[in-house]
Amino acid sequence: MKKAALVVVVLFALPAVAARLPQNVVPKHYRITLAPDIPTEKFSGDETIDVEIREPSTTITVNAAEIEFDDTSVTSGGRTQKAQVALNASEQTATLSVPEAVSGPASIDFKFRGKLNDKLRGFYISKTPRRKYAVTQFESTDARRAFPSFDEPALKATFDISAVIDTGDIAIGNGRMISDTPGPGEGKHTVKFAPTKPLPTYLVALLIGDFQCSDGSAGDIPIRVCATPEKVQLTHFAVDAASKELNFYNDWYGIKYPFEKLDVIGIPDFAAGAMENAAAITFRESALLVDEKSGSPAARRRVASVIAHELAHQWFGDLVTMRWWDDIWLNEGFATWMTPKAVASLNPAWSTVATDAQATGRALSSDSLTATRPIRTRVETPAEIESVFDQIAYGKSAAVLRMAESYIGPDLFRIGIRAYLTRFSYGNASAEDFWGTMTETTKQPLDRIFSSFVLQPGAPLVKVETKCEDGMTRVALSQSRFFASRDSARTSKEVWVIPVVARTLDKDSTQRFLLEQPAQTFTFSGCAPHLFLNANGRGYYRSEYAAGILGPDRQLRDALTTAEKVSLISDDWALVRGGGENVGDYLRRLETFVAERNPVIVQSTISSLASIADYLTTDTDRNAYREWVRDLLTPIAREAGWTASMTDSDETKEMRSQVLTTLAEVGNDADVKKRARELARKIIDEQSPADRQLAANILIMAAESGDAALYDEIRARAAKAKSPEEYRMYLFPLQYFTDPALVRRSLDWALSAEMRSQDRAGFIAGILSNDRARPVAWAYVKEHWSDIERLIPPFTIGRIMSSMSRACASADRDEIKAFFAAHPAAGSERSARQTLERINSCIAFHEQQAPNLATFLGASK
């Protein structure tokens, strides 16, 4: 699944829900008929589960939540016994009791009823202004809300599903449709799907409504991209992307796509970005639907990336499924790692080694907290399971895979991956199964490398010293755990097996080291004083160099690849945030690197420039910093201009948008702001030729000082948007108005029936992330907390909580801590600690670096 940032904050434990079922009953095959009544938002079901009962027993326990049972029986040895059903709502189980013990092959029959809920989970209602749809979302533990089941990933079985639906509607499921017959009853027809391959319950899908589809194919696999009728014209880019990326995966894996067809469906209300249901992948509309002609590069790349991620899951997760949720990285980390490969097959400019380095930097930032977690983390309850769909599962796991692949070489690594997928096809695997197979196949120490990064929390900091003697370069490396703040640092007990690929800058020779002790010394032949420790930015570690090892910045600019510069900038910024490097030295290096006008390098600096403005500047030096930012970026903005040309690369278009926005927001550039206001009027009046990516940022710039009239116009345009991208283009600026009355209007709207439930959490979080709007927004959130809990699904409400980590004052920290101690949300204590730790880190950052910034600005005048 491609999830949004689902970080949930809670300051004390909520009641636990037991997750594990007794293991004495194993499902083999499900035969399920579901009959949704969409107008009344209810459904009924008829189900038979063929099982193997390993030990004689008079009880069978299944998962069930929010289901009412009408009739239940168990058949074994030719005898059928009526079963009594005992529900346990807190444990989400139903225990069936029969008079006489059953064993061996058996079948369980259920007749049941349920509600099509409005919580974006289980079997639920999705709406457009025109009608309702019945759709499913079962990951992680919500199949039990649609039908009684053995709702655990290791209990894979085949599924034979039928749906009784209204005439005029279609049904989409995991299997291809094999029959469509009238009835039962007037105005109904029954759609039956082919039996599936073995699947866990969380990958089952059923969607019902008047969806319309565009067709494509990849070899002999038919592909449909489906949407509501009013948006089907936006599916054509996705058809092309899915076809090409599926062909890429077939070749890369060396294992043909494991299902008979591929349906890709955009759903009007969907909590996550997308979900990898086998052969029936579901998407939030903004992650799938884009105008293939007018859509911005960012929107098209987003669609290509999310499709690639979910297609990768058809092998990692669907063909081979993790045994339990503690190894969710075997799904999400692998799909995240594979995504850039498939996207590059569609458009090489959208996925490069440099963008991989940027992704590694983001993962390292999250992993630098004391409150991080190991990649494998023990989880039992549904809330605990939801909590591990985070940056560690996605970003860190992918980065560790990239590092190992770079160390042994991509061809050998792929041989190991193919062996792993072949060995465990249609079954389940653990982390040990993965790295055991990889080690056996490649003859490389991947078991030691992976286990050290999967089983330990945090990430290493590798310190480098070099010395030339006897015609050799001796490289002394030491490792310790890296922390976001030196105030959080403690004696590191973790020791990683780190595959280092180092490169000398003088002779451009590369060597591999396996750093597996707290300190080790390696050698290069010849004297090469200048060394870069992380060739192509593939390593999952921070690097800290002794003086002189990298050489002068101007020479370094020519010696490093773009990916290496991205990695170095990320490491430098982390050291600045942690107090290990002077912010003035960091800004001097940026001056050198940004001067080359490389779009990726410029993009890599933007967020740090904003953070410095937000957290380090004072009334005394704020204007001087703004002037420095203008001096740095104005030459780039003048060259880029305000209008895209036919020859502009996608990177240049994105850089233009980010540079102009930074000049306005961080540099307080009066000319840029004035021009943005002028263009905003033309965009609203549909007179501007600006591309949508720049247009969105122009509207944001105008909104920051906008009045009620502008607010009303932008909101009206959002209501009339013809595509998800256009809607987002007008939605996001509404988060940037700062007039208190307008902030409250936006929050009232977010909690009204006018806003989609999928958008509420992100929209409120965006307003809270706006420093100038936060005081009003935070007061509103506290006042309306009961409404927020009622209207926003618990597994997305955490986006609101995590946005408060942008606070940077002890008083704010104490207030946030007290409020959420009194008003706990579903989630984990770890998430709360992370939010508070980020605030503490910011406070320390200001104390350590604000004087250094003042000194730098004084010296740079």
> Which structural class best describes the helix and strand composition?
alpha+beta
- Number of beta strands: 27
Work out the strand percent: 15-25%
Largest sheet data: 9 strands, mixed
Number of helices: 26
Describe the structure.
With 861 residues, the protein is α+β, with helices and mostly antiparallel strands. Helices cover 41% and strands 23% of the residues. Helix 18 runs antiparallel to helix 19. The strands form seven sheets. Strands 1, 2, 3, 4, 5, 6, 9, 11 and 12 form a nine-stranded mixed β-sheet that branches. A five-stranded mixed β-sheet has the order 14-15-16-18-17, with helices on one face. The chain contains 26 helices and 27 strands. About 2% of the residues have low confidence.
Task: Offer a few descriptive terms.
861 residues, alpha+beta, 27 strands, 41% helix, globular
Write the layout of secondary structure elements.
Elements: E1 25-37, E2 42-63, E3 67-76, E4 79-82, E5 84-88, E6 93-115, E7 122-127, E8 132-137, E9 158-166, E10 170-173, E11 177-182, E12 188-193, E13 206-209, E14 212-218, E15 221-227, H1 236-253, E16 262-267, E17 274-275, E18 280-284, H2 297-313, E19 321-322, H3 329-346, H4 353-367, H5 382-387, H6 391-408, H7 410-423, E20 428-429, H8 431-442, H9 446-454, E21 460-469, E22 472-481, E23 498-504, E24 510-515, E25 519-525, E26 531-532, E27 542-545, H10 553-559, H11 562-578, H12 583-594, H13 599-615, H14 622-640, H15 650-665, H16 670-684, H17 692-703, H18 708-719, H19 724-731, H20 740-750, H21 757-768, H22 774-783, H23 785-791, H24 798-802, H25 810-822, H26 829-860
